[in-house]
């Protein structure tokens, strides 16, 4: 009677290479056993290669993801270094919270006060400038609030509020949402004033908020990179831009190994150094959508 042919995998925590056990049956089963054994070996060692592949986790913003920057940039980094990058793209506030819990190796966001506090509190090694673009106020082309070619984003926001026109806010504690709220405050409006049918907090990323603004024919604040890459513009257009208060810098920080011994600080530092290197900066500067640059590199 022939015996069954099977493969079995055993791991230990210090050496996760699979150990293959093959039980050959009688002579008539040997060829089949060898074939099955070969298949098992290929599958198991392929799994092992994937399991042991070096990767880092980057907590970042929806704007870097929605703009297409990561899709363009990260394969080049991985090809050069062998380090895979897994991005968690959320609002800046949530990204910072993830990194503060040690759930990321790198923080790559666009709210400088939060970034500087992250380092000052001992969660990150050092903040580095990477790139910048700017924020723009988007609205219907017929511009019922009459803010087109505005001299000041704060005066534009007051006009939107006074006209009762709909404004779509991300409302998600992102870097964009933080900047929007600071602009409302500069315009003399507090949280209690941002209520009612006219003010819609979407609780969503930039792309989804732009979709909502397009559907409502509403005004909104967007980073320029996401706006350029956004396809569903419908009747929307850029109506206010160019003010210094709309400047939008991005910073990158390797999470501190002193605070979180488990983080992959060496690989994270490799990623940070690559982004701010001459090569990384050139790639960022060369990135375009519809022949328009989305970010300007500014590493010192």
Q: How are the secondary structure elements laid out?
A:
Blueprint: H1 27-51, E1 55-61, H2 62-66, H3 69-81, E2 84-90, H4 92-100, E3 106-109, H5 112-120, E4 124-140, H6 153-163, E5 167-169, H7 175-186, E6 199-201, H8 206-216, E7 219-223, H9 224-229, E8 236-240, E9 247-255, H10 265-276, H11 278-286, E10 288-289, E11 292-293, E12 296-297
Parallel strand pairs: 1-2, 1-3, 5-6, 5-7
Antiparallel strand pairs: 3-9, 4-7, 4-8, 4-9, 4-12, 10-11
CATH class of the largest domain: Alpha Beta
User: For the CA atoms, what is the radius of gyration?
Assistant: 25 Å
Poorly predicted runs: 1-25, 40-52
How many H/I helices?
A: 11
Topology, number of strands:
12
Shape: globular
Q: What summary fits the major beta sheet?
A: 10 strands, mixed
CATH topology of the largest domain: D-Maltodextrin-Binding Protein, domain 2
Quick check: average pLDDT?
A: 87
The run of helices and strands is HEHHEHEHEHEHEHEHEEHHEEE
The number of domains is 3
Based on the structure given, which CATH architecture of the largest domain is correct? 3-Layer(aba) Sandwich
Percentage of residues assigned to helices: 40-55%
| The CATH homologous superfamily of the largest domain | Periplasmic binding protein-like II
């Amino acid at each position: 009677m022939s015996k069954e042919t099977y493969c079995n995998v055993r791991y230990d925590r210090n050496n996760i290479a699979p150990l293959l056990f093959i039980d050959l049956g009688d002579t008539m089963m040997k060829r089949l056993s060898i074939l099955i054994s070969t298949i098992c070996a290929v599958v198991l060692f392929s799994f092992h290669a994937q399991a042991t592949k070096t990767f880092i986790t980057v907590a970042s913003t929806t704007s870097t993801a929605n703009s297409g920057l990561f899709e363009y940039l990260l394969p080049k980094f991985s090809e050069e270094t062998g380090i895979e990058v897994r991005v968690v793209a959320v609002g800046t506030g949530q990204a910072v919270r993830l990194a503060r819990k040690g759930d990321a190796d790198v923080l790559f966001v666009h709210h400088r006060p939060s970034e500087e506090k992250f380092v000052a509190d001992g969660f990150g090694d050092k903040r580095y400038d990477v790139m910048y673009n700017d924020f723009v106020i988007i609205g219907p082309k017929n511009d019922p609030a009459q803010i087109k070619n505005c001299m000041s984003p704060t005066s534009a926001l007051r006009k939107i509020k006074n006209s009762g026109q709909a404004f779509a806010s991300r409302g998600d504690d992102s870097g964009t949402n933080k900047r929007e709220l600071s602009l409302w405050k500069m315009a003399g409006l507090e949280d209690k004033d941002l209520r009612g049918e006219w003010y819609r907090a979407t609780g969503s990323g930039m792309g989804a908020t732009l979709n909502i603004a397009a559907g409502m024919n509403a005004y909104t604040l967007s980073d320029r990179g996401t706006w350029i890459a956004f396809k569903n513009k419908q009747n929307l257009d850029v109506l206010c831009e160019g003010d210094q208060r709309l400047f939008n810098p991005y910073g990158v920080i390797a999470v501190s190994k002193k605070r979180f011994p488990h983080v992959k600080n060496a690989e994270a530092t490799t990623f940070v150094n690559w982004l701010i290197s001459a090569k990384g900066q050139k790639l960022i500067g060369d990135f375009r959508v519809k022949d328009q640059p989305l970010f300007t590199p500014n590493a010192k």
